[in-house]
Amino acid sequence: MHRLIAGVLLLSSLTACAAPKAAGAPLAPIERAWEVPTLELYSEWWRKTEECSGRKGDMSLVKFFAVDAPTGAIGLNGTIAHGWWVRQGNRIYLPANALGEEWLVRHEMLHALLQRGAHPAKQFVGACHLASVEVWRDSTMHFDPTNPRGL
Ligand SMILES: [Zn+2]
Question: Please, are residues 40 and 2 in contact by the beta-carbon 8 Å criterion?
């Protein structure tokens, strides 16, 4: 029986996530991080994310990392975000206290399924409601108020 700790995130003005773009940029957070096994819950969330997005992917190709980030903010390459998907190595970084935060975990899963760092509204807002916690809570939204252009 696995028990996840549902973290309360400080949601203020942080972006849900970002994807490092610059060549030569560091590819991992500065904070201490460790790989976490994918639990049954993650398989279920992966399936749900495949369903809403219409994309199929092999979750075993994705590595999940917990990051020692008690405030819920992970810094990478000068940017701070709640979570990160890194294309190189297909890695997802989440605050250790947010491993049970469905919208955030599935937000990063959607990046991995799309293999894109951007946030196209079609999938992130309309289809899956995973763009941000605001969009997660209000499924009638047509765009993400924290990222209206879906960057
Ligand atoms: Zn994102």
Answer: yes
